[in-house]
């Protein structure tokens, strides 16, 4: 340790000792001296808590006091800040957050589920107590996008924010694409690498990305968090054939979270999209995340980095602790809760864009004409089409890219085909990023 510290140590209680908690312990140990110089004081874990005291976590926990009842932490005067790395929108994480913020104890969390659902209430508690509520790890893991949006881009009116917000899905999609491996096999690997949520359906069904998008949208637009109006589609129904057809058409498939704000309302959606090869998001691979924000003075900002895993996520948690030690914090959502605007949701059907439609159909005369008639009657104009027969049965895969048109017309095409006995499975629609 150097002798340049300005203050006594920042004393931390760490709750949750899984992937991220373990990473935080390792990072605070490995970079202790540098962190102390940057923070102006050493950052020391004094107390730890998790569900299972006896589990081997691959880190030495003996220097720390084990606490069985985490609800005792908010009242302790020998603890300066509580770090919550349990997860879950409600339950013990939320109880702990409320107790800490009500008791005037600064609070650091990586819990995007809790923030997406209860962020405004928690921010109001922090505001009332005049203390820090920090959550850099909650969105895009190690990328300092919360700081970037809250501080760096704070002068701008942001019209659109979008990006790849889930490391597990990006790892699955890009590994399937590059190595031709199956979905379940790659998901298992993402879990072993510590990327996935405790319940991985939150990842693959797009819910985790929606939690993060909710937070980003509030920061970007100065609007209240509105998780309930995020339209969510995950990657469960993306087939290896879609990835191959998208590649043949000049695209890569990514799970994209996108939010736009304008006079027509707040548009928020998470869905697999076709990303043109010349767009930077097409080159974001593995557990990388990326966020694009378009500001009226700064122009296009592009943030990229590791969105999941112990090291990157711990990096964000400890950055928050350094801010707490420096006494550098402000309103959790970049302005007082009362100043956040209430914005109604926009009508997605009126959006104009291009789309990819995939049909698995019977290989028999008239099927192509049936689909073409449905698109024509719905007012959808076709830009390109690929049709391939399967070698193992008499099915045909038809992949269509439309010209730009209203999304409601694409949905109308599907409605016209609903119930057709030519379709062997439900069609897939993916919008194309422009
Ligand atoms: N793993 C990652 O790459 C990232 C995770 N996060 C978030 O960080 C948080 C922690 O995630 P992980 O470390 O991956 O989870 P994990 O499942 O590896 O660890 C969770 C820890 O919390 C403890 N825990 C769970 N329920 C508890 C309860 N009721 N009482 C006491 N302890 C309890 C477990 O014993 C375990 O030590 C979650 O909110 C997650 O969404 C955020 C960014 C990235
Ligand atoms: N499960 C999440 C972890 C980080 O937020 C992901 O895969 O991105
Ligand atoms: Na982050």
UniProtKB/TrEMBL annotation:
Pathway: Amino-acid biosynthesis; L-methionine biosynthesis via de novo pathway; L-homoserine from L-aspartate: step 3/3; Amino-acid biosynthesis; L-threonine biosynthesis; L-threonine from L-aspartate: step 3/5. GO terms for molecular function: homoserine dehydrogenase activity. It comes from the Bacteria. Keywords: Amino-acid biosynthesis, Methionine biosynthesis, NADP, Oxidoreductase, Threonine biosynthesis. Residues 356-434 form the ACT domain. Its EC number is 1.1.1.3. It is an enzyme of class 1 (oxidoreductase). InterPro entries: ACT-like_dom_sf (IPR045865), ACT_dom (IPR002912), Asp/hSer_DH_NAD-bd (IPR005106), HDH (IPR016204), HDH_cat (IPR001342), HDH_CS (IPR019811), NAD(P)-bd_dom_sf (IPR036291). Belongs to the homoserine dehydrogenase family. This is Homoserine dehydrogenase. It comes from Sphingobium tyrosinilyticum.
């Amino acid at each position: 340790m150097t002798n340049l510290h300005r203050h006594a140590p920042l004393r931390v209680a760490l709750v949750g000792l899984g992937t991220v908690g373990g990473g935080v312990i390792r990072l605070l140990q490995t970079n202790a001296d540098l962190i102390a110089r940057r923070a102006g004081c050493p950052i020391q874990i004094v107390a730890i808590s998790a569900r299972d005291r006896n589990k081997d976590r691959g880190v030495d926990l003996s220097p720390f006091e084990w606490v069985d009842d985490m609800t005792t932490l908010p009242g302790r005067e020998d603890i300066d800040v509580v770090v919550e790395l349990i997860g879950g929108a409600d339950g013990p994480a939320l109880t702990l957050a409320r107790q800490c913020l009500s008791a005037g104890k600064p609070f650091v969390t990586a819990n995007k589920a809790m923030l997406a659902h209860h962020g405004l209430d928690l921010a109001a508690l922090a505001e009332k107590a005049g203390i820090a509520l920090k959550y850099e790890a909650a969105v895009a893991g190690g990328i300092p996008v919360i700081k970037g949006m809250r501080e760096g881009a704070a002068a701008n009116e942001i019209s659109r924010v979008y990006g790849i917000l889930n490391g597990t899905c990006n790892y699955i999609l890009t590994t399937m694409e590059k190595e031709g491996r199956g979905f379940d096999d790659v998901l298992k690997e993402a879990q072993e690498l510590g990327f996935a949520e405790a319940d991985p359906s939150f990842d693959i069904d797009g819910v985790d990305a929606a939690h993060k998008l909710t937070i980003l949208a509030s920061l970007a637009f100065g609007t209240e968090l509105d998780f309930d109006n995020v339209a969510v589609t995950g990657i469960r129904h993306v087939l290896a054939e879609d990835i191959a057809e998208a590649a043949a058409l000049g695209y890569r498939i990514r799970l994209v979270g996108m939010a736009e704000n304008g006079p027509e309302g707040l548009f928020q959606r998470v869905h697999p999209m076709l990303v043109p090869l010349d767009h930077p998001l097409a080159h974001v691979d593995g557990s990388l995340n990326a966020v694009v924000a378009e500001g009226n003075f700064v122009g296009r900002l592009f943030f990229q980095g590791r969105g999941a895993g112990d090291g990157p996520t711990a990096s964000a948690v400890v950055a928050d602790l350094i801010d707490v030690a420096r006494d550098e914090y402000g309103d959790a959502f970049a302005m007082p809760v009362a100043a956040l605007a209430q914005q109604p949701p926009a009508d997605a059907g009126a959006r104009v864009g291009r789309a990819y439609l995939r049909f698995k159909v019977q290989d028999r005369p008239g099927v192509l004409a049936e689909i073409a008639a449905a698109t024509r009657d719905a007012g959808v104009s076709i830009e390109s089409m690929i049709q391939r027969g399967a070698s193992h049965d008499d099915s045909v895969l038809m992949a269509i890219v439309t010209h730009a048109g209203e999304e409601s017309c694409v949905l109308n095409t599907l409605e016209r085909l609903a119930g057709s006995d030519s379709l062997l499975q439900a069609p897939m629609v993916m919008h194309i990023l422009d």
